[in-house]
Amino acid sequence: MQENITQIRVYRYRLYPTKPQEVAMFETLRLTRTLYNAGLEQRIAAYRKQGKTVTAYDQQKELTALKAECPEFNAVYSHVLQDALDRLDKAYKGFFARVKRGDKAGFPRFKPRQRWNSFRFKEVWDRKKGQWLSPGKPVDEGRRINIPKIGAVKCKFHRPLEGTPKTLQIVHDCGEWYAVYTCEVPVNPLPVTGSAVGVDVGTRYFAITSDGEFVHNPRHLGNALKKLRVQQRTVSRRKRGGNRRRKAALQVAKTHRKIRRSRQDFHHKTARKLVNEHDLIAHEGLKVSNMVQSNLSRSISDVGWSAFFDILRGKAESAGRVVVRVPPQYTSQRCHACGHTCRENRNNEVFKCVSCGHEDHADWNAAKNILARALPSGVNGNEVSYAVA
Questions:
Q1: What is the pLDDT of residues 10-63, one digit of tens each?
Q2: Count of CB atoms within 10 A of residue 195's CB?
Q3: Would residue 211 show up in a list of annotated catalytic residues for this protein?
Q4: One domain for residues 149 and 200
Q5: Has 344 been annotated as catalytic?
Q6: 149 phi/psi in degrees, rounded to 5
Q7: Per the residue annotation, which of 200, 302, 317, 360 is the catalytic one?
Q8: Which chain regions cross the lipid bilayer (predicted)?
């Protein structure tokens, strides 16, 4: 049964385009952004003047006429143009979903150059023939990939692609180009360990497990704040619209990219260790978006709990493990030994039960409570993120 289970995995490779190829890629970004903004303007005008809702299908049918009227759009692959309108449709659907939930709506906005850095090919694999289509096809013995309307671009395949490729996205990130493939790969479960663990996350320690392991918080953003302050002051001194200000802003973006990559690498390694060692991993179902409104917002954003839990679930899915989200209420105030729950039990990092006298590290005690809630006797009301029979 497990042989039929698949998951979507992302592979990211560095591209090294020539100068003419890079000009063509920037032009593709410009044209797709122009199409997105024109599509948004069309939707707004149609609703204001006629009360009519324009769909992505309606707009995509007009692409042939658009190419006839504006020949420069012939330089962009048709699927790439369609995807720009699909992204607009997705933004609209997200807006209406947030309105329905009562969240902050956030109506779709026009995209400036700084906020449009990718274009996507919706199909790169012919399922019937079991072979590559033109977009994304490795050529020149795997040293280049074919990008329609642009050419064969040099690509560094630092690891092989696995499974069946589905889409290809070309991303521009702080002066560097990347090819991002999404592939459908089979799930390969790891051997059963018979172990279960509860994980409590924090800002002083990134994670504390019910086994007593304390994972220190590397504080990637905190360690780079001094450098960022200097760079951001340099940006503020530069004249708006000038080339020197643009270069200074690029340095800030590169520093943030390094922080993001370091944090992501730490998340992957921590999640991999948990998945390799345990069959069941329990953590609190935290509403991080609400927690970042507190005075600890910078520290909470720095540790990146939401991103870590997403990575953990993805690795658990590929390994056939189980991840359980448990209700977070009172996990830090409940005594793991006797079950007595009150605020007085916890004093900063020290947990001392006022009922039975049990003493423990407060976060370790919370991790044990999280595991207890995830086990079969306490699983009611919990959300199982992934499970393989």
A1: 999 999 999 999 999 999 999 999 999 999 999 999 999 998 999 999 999 999
A2: 11
A3: no
A4: no
A5: no
A6: 75, -5
A7: 200
A8: none
